[in-house]
Design brief:
By secondary structure, the protein is an alpha+beta fold. The protein has helices spanning 2-17, 26-30, 77-83, 121-126, 163-166, 213-218, 255-259, and strands at 35-38, 43-48, 51-52, 63-65, 87-90, 95-98, 109-110, 132-135, 140-143, 178-181, 186-189, 198-199, 222-224, 229-231.
């Protein structure tokens, strides 16, 4: 009897010490002082406006503190069902709506998405709650029940044939196992020794990346130091750098050699 009393007392203390973790929805989470909602992991965490106190909430605009993402900002089923559990996807209108708003889509709301909405091996196998599998023959995500295709229920990195599939971040939840090797255009297990240029995000139009060398190389592009421009690796008309110049300024040991570099100063 004493053990049960002690257990209940400890449980009550743990809940009082961390009121955030047990909360299941964004609205209830953000109405609790000191709590914030991480849309990427769909979890309530203790934190501040700048982020969680412990752990990470990975992805741009995934941390929501004292404000929840509105349902109408999600334009596809995947983002709707994972971005805010207080939202539901209305299949008949193809819109994201509030679960508790019965004035719209009263009979056609769902919190799961059709397999066809997953466009890559990564998202099909990672985020469909085991309801779908990837058919390599057709390059499509299919329902696990009733398919005549031998489906993959896990997705090895090398099965992802494009950068988008390899790094498909599904609204911020990055595929933690894989990295895209820009030098050979292949998806490989993160940390592989044969990958010289590991992209942190898929190449946009490289010329559109204007924030500097770091952003350029992170996107799998090449940096032209003589023009200070970001270019596609296969279209570079310069001696392209795969290491940012500012990362090795300390290699110049004299004022003259240092100041010959535009990005360095003595």
């Amino acid at each position: 009897m004493m053990l049960i009393v002690c257990f209940l007392a400890c449980l009550a203390f743990a809940v009082a010490d961390d009121p955030c973790t047990p909360l299941q929805g964004c609205a209830s989470c953000n109405s609790t002082p000191g709590c914030g909602w991480c849309a990427a992991s769909r979890s309530c965490m203790q934190g501040t406006p700048s982020g969680p106190n412990q752990g990470f909430c990975e992805g741009a605009k995934q941390w929501n503190y004292q404000a929840c993402p509105s349902c109408d900002q999600f334009d596809n089923c995947r983002a709707c069902s994972h971005g805010n559990p207080d939202c539901a996807w209305c299949a008949s209108s193809s819109k994201c709506v509030a679960w508790d708003d019965n004035s719209v889509c009263p009979d056609d709301k769902t919190d799961s998405c059709p397999c066809s909405s997953y466009n890559s091996c990564a998202t099909c196998t990672l985020f469909s709650d085991d309801k779908c599998g990837w058919c390599t023959e057709t390059g499509q995500c299919e329902a696990a029940v009733g398919s005549t295709c031998p489906l993959k229920l896990t997705c090895p990195c090398d099965e992802n044939e494009t950068c988008e599939s390899c790094l498909d971040d599904f609204n911020g939840l990055h595929h933690n196992e894989c990295s895209w090797c820009g030098d050979v255009n292949k998806c490989q297990k993160k940390g592989g020794s044969t990958c010289k240029v590991a992209a942190l995000s898929c190449p946009a139009e490289c010329a559109s990346l204007t924030s500097g060398c770091g952003e350029c190389l992170d996107a799998g592009c090449a940096w032209c130091a003589d023009t200070n421009k970001c270019v596609d690796q296969d279209k570079a008309q310069c001696l392209a750098a795969h290491v940012c110049p500012e990362d090795h300024c300390d290699n110049f040991k004299s004022c003259d050699t240092c100041n010959e570099r535009a990005e360095a100063g003595w």
